[in-house]
UniProtKB/TrEMBL annotation:
Natural source organism: Ottowia testudinis
Protein name stated in the entry: Exo-alpha-sialidase
SUPFAM superfamilies hit by this protein: Oligoxyloglucan reducing end-specific cellobiohydrolase
Length: 334
């Protein structure tokens, strides 16, 4: 996940798919190096994907860029740090897998990383049911402190720190914000005719975007439109984005934001918009990945099934599949 102010991208999803630390992740470094983490380890390419070198046995991790050159790699059992663009890694902290702690955000504050997570902890009343708890660490994951959170903490989903506040999401698709971790927390009202959210996004300028599923069922069929809404005043006013002429049935799904440019799907076409009103079709190909990554060479995505990196070629309007030499197939058993 590309985090606010930490990497090349200027927005991140709220929440991303909840990290399983098994499906793989892609990072594009500022110098153009590509890094992939999946079930066979961590791999790096410095020749635009023509060949890959294994840099670590750390498997199934997610990348978190911090500061100018720092890069964290988190998997189910450890926190790891690289200061040379992913060429070498140092283990910073271990934790037991049975804590089921999921890292969602890492911030560099005056040279000291703050890590924000959601953990499964034993219920206070000693009942059998575990509860979710927001936590943060000031010592790179060695010790963890609980964070105050909105009510119904058993539905905690994700937590993010941003320049203009802290955001948490819950499994019931609600999103809350506070300017101070001590609270109070305020729920951000959803857009009109809102049924449920599939993804939330937050950009560096304070805009909140949502892919909203809106029930437009009739008596004869059950249908849900996918619409993009955005707000800049924490949900007091929502604007529906509609790229191009209105009047015909069109589904839009926001996939990523980079330097104020929106990348989205429109009726199975992959498009972008720099002004939030008009669209430029980039490719008619089906979007091959799940999340976008942005770097000096443009737009990338990772298909996690066979762990293949794809690069958007705007000239040919295609997704170019990069090489896999040295990048093991996770289904080969090797």
């Amino acid at each position: 996940m590309a985090l606010l102010g930490l990497g090349a991208a200027s927005a991140f999803a709220l929440p991303p798919p909840i990290p399983s630390y098994t499906m793989g992740d892609l990072h594009v470094a500022a110098n153009g190096a590509l890094l992939v983490s999946h079930t066979s380890g961590t791999f790096r390419s410095t020749d635009e994907g023509q060949s890959w070198q294994k840099t670590s046995g750390i498997f199934g991790g997610r990348f978190f860029p911090v500061g100018q050159s720092g890069l964290y790699l988190v998997n189910q059992s450890s926190l790891n740090l690289s200061l040379d663009g992913g060429a070498n890694w140092k283990k910073i902290a271990d934790w037991l897998a049975n804590t089921a702690r999921k890292i969602f955000d890492i911030r560099d504050s005056a040279g000291s990383a703050r890590i924000y997570a959601v953990a499964r902890v034993a219920a206070a009343d000693n009942s059998q049911a575990d509860q979710s708890q927001f936590q943060f660490s000031r010592d790179q994951g060695k010790t963890w402190l609980p964070l105050p959170a909105p009510s119904s903490t058993e539905r905690c989903c994700a937590i993010y720190a941003a320049a203009h506040g802290y955001y948490v999401t819950r499994t019931d698709n609600q999103i809350f914000k506070t300017k101070n971790l001590a609270g109070p927390w305020a729920e951000i009202p959803p857009p009109p005719a809102f049924d449920r959210a599939s993804e939330w996004f937050l950009d560096a300028d304070g805009w909140i975007y949502v892919n909203a599923l809106v029930d437009v069922s009739s008596n004869s069929e059950s249908v849900a439109d996918v619409r993009i809404y955005r707000t800049r005043d924490d949900g007091q006013h929502w604007e529906r984005l509609w790229f191009g002429p209105r009047g015909k049935k069109t589904n839009f799904r926001l996939i990523g934001i980079d330097k104020k440019v929106l990348y989205f799907e429109c009726n199975n076409h992959f498009c972008k918009s720099a002004d939030g009103a008009t669209q430029q079709r980039l490719t008619d190909q089906f979007f091959p990945g799940t999340e976008l990554r942005f770097g000096p060479q443009g737009v990338f995505t990772l298909s996690t099934g066979r762990v293949t990196v794809h690069h958007l070629n705007e000239k040919t309007q295609n997704w170019d599949t990069l090489g896999t030499q040295g990048l093991p197939d996770p289904f080969s058993g090797k």
